[in-house]
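Support case: user asked for a sample of complex input and structure output to validate their parser. Sending the pair below.
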Amino acid sequence: MIDKRCDSLAAALEGLGDGARLMISGFGESGRPDMLIKAVLEAGITGLDLISNNAGEGTTGLAALFLAGRVRRLTCSFPRGAMQDEIEALVRAGKLELDVMPQGTLAERIRAGGAGIAAFYTPTSFGTIVAEGKETRMFDGRGHVLETALTADFALVKAHRADRWGNLTYDKLGRSFAPLMAAAASCTIVEADEIVELGDIAPGDVITPGIFTDRLVQTAPVQWEQAA
Amino acid sequence: MSLTRDQVAARIAADIPEGWHVNLGIGWPELVANHIPDRREVILHSENGILGMGPTPAPGTEDRNMINAGKKPITAVKGASFFDHAQSFAIVRGGHLDLCVLGAYQVAPNGDVANWSRAAGDVLPSIGGAMDLAAGAKRIWVVMTHCDNRGGPKLLERCAFPLTGAGVVSRVYTELAVIDVADGAFTVRELAPGITRDEISARSGAPLAFDPALREMVVA
């Protein structure tokens, strides 16, 4: 019987260690796997090579990883936010390396990573400093920039409903990067609001097929005060 | 007399016809949504994954999974759809949006726009979705103050800040004027009440042409 449910957070995170290349789903607070992020924090894992759209806000969620000094590199599109002063201080001190790119380029690089596409040409950023040093090519008289795929060792993904095969649905705008990251990581760890019986999610309603899910846990409320 | 931010937003909304799919950038562009008449069906896109974005929710009904690209609380209108980031940017880059309204630091007569960074050596460069929107939407309109905080012009012969997109802007709305950007030139179509040709030219860093049918901006 296929059953991707894990008995504990420790089991869900097994093998995720220092220096891992890690994708974390979400856009701002939406679709962010807070319980798994907190588990990474509490496990003491550090030196993360993180791929996530934002650097986080306040002192919880993603921000907690940065404030605790656990991230050595961030690949993202928008590192500014409520905690930009702290992020800037880390970058200036040489403790955090940033790789910033257009949001659609970030999304498509991750999509490509999960889809077996090594690279693609995008019109985005042509003629800007983002394209400097990159291969460019004209298609139909328009400039395009070559961008390569992104993959990761692990992805932490927040889903709404899940079954034991790892079929997933998402809550509203909580979907964002999650389906792309689930496909692009070697090991995708999912926390879901609800774990339902096989068949309870109609086949046509599945957003991420279970083939992309490796491990599954049910979301429990997170108390950030204790983590900080 | 210069117009208020809401008056400029209303002026932009008046130019958006029924049936368009539109992305409104963060900040001033977001105000445009408040001025689209209820009976006119204009479908708003937000790049984090929605078509059919609705107004701000009533206090106490916010949802962490219902936010826009500026991470502010939103609602969904009837007929709205959600999708992942790859599909959202397929909508953007694929040329499916009729319009994107962007804020900007600088615009040049060749259609170049700079709106994401004030220096090439920015420690925290933050691009977000702006470059994809600039490259992909069928039309790019800019809404911005006519001059910067120090009174310096933002309509320039060439953008000094790093570009968001090259040759993409077709119209600029400011508190003083509506300006078309085409064929390598700025052409003023409308002026705010009481603003003269000399005044607007003095506050611009590139030559301005004036439409033969130049008229006053209608104030809501």
